[in-house]
Amino acid sequence: MRHLLSTLDLDADAATELLDTAAKLKATLLGREVRKLPTLRGRTVVTMFYESSTRTRVSFEVAGKWMSADVINVSAGGSSVGKGESLRDTALTLAAAGADCVVVRHPASGAAQRLAHWLSDNGTAVVNAGDGMHEHPTQALLDAATLRERLGELAGRRVGIVGDVLHSRVARSNVHLLRTLGAEVVLVAPPTLLPAGVDDWNVPVSYELDPELPALDAVMMLRVQAERMHGGFFPSAREYSIAYGLNEARLRMLPEHAVVLHPGPMLRGMEIASAVADSPRAAITQQVSNGVHVRMAVLYHLLAAGAEETRTKETV
Ligand code: NCD
Q: What is the uppermost EC class here (predicted)?
């Protein structure tokens, strides 16, 4: 694996290997007072966030630090981007300064792909931490890790992805990965919040949440992404919440074992009621913890696993 740009790049074996590595790292660190492995000593990871983030940026930083990498955070505001430098020049500068891996979040769909292209000669790995409305592969991996912990293997499980599918990179990455892992996906959204080409995704689509709930093993609620909306996509927040919000009555319609996921940040009272978000059925903080281990696994496979193979070949 040279980069992680899209969950479409992962076949079932590659995805399972990453999830297994994440689970092993989690077990290794569990209960340890000092959470520090030497794995990435001497490696430099630069996070480059052009869009706001709490969970993703922090968990990449924690992941790198727990494996002893040097982690440097660059934000668009405090860098030369504010002086008009292009994404390409910024990336080449970071590579020249010694970055082994660039973790990028950018409002433009396809930005991570471009970056990987520009950095292809430098040997710098690129991880897509969310590019516009396109993909967010590590989020889908941490969601899968959480579902595996709660439900066991994902093959044959049915997952509902509910809400603003149109603007959601989380939905896209999850649709690909869940299907690769053998799960069934159903998208639930008002017609205005579904992408034009949704038929090509070959997943069932429903405009109504209630009839779907009893058959779901997990429900993934999406944030309504107001920052990407120009115009009215639904009549009012109240009407959206009545039709698509996961409230306590709807929680009771799910099977006993069903898991509630949300990538965060949550809009409590809009797509999810507070009582549901805080219930033991919700795995929202577990998702965040798993995010650290999944990102450790990704950095490990990009920066250390290959090097170990090369070392083994050299010594043989
Ligand atoms: C998501 C994102 O940024 O795409 N958040 C995250 O990374 N946990 C979802 C969102 O912003 O709604």
A: transferase
For the question of whether the overall pTM of this predicted structure is more than 0.85, the answer is yes
State whether 157 and 191 are in the same domain. Answer: yes
Quick check: 123 and 115 in contact, CB under 8 A?
A: no
Residue 184 lies in a domain: yes
In angstroms, the CA 279 to CA 156 distance is: 25
Q: Is 169 annotated as a binding residue?
A: yes
Ligand 1 centroid to residue 52 C-alpha, Å: 9
Residue 148 within a domain: yes
Domain that holds residue 112: 7-135+288-315
Residues in the chain: 316
Q: With both helix axes pointing from N to C terminus, report the angle between 55-66 and 284-300 in degrees, rounded to the nearest 10.
A: 50
291 C-beta closer than 6 A to ligand 1: no
| pLDDT tens, residue by residue, 194-237 | 999 999 999 999 999 999 999 999 999 999 988 887 777 887 88
> In this structure, is residue 89 part of a structural domain?
yes
Question: Could you tell me if 187 and 255 lie in one domain?
Answer: yes
164 and 66, same structural domain? no
State which ligand 1 atom lies nearest to the alpha carbon of 130: 4
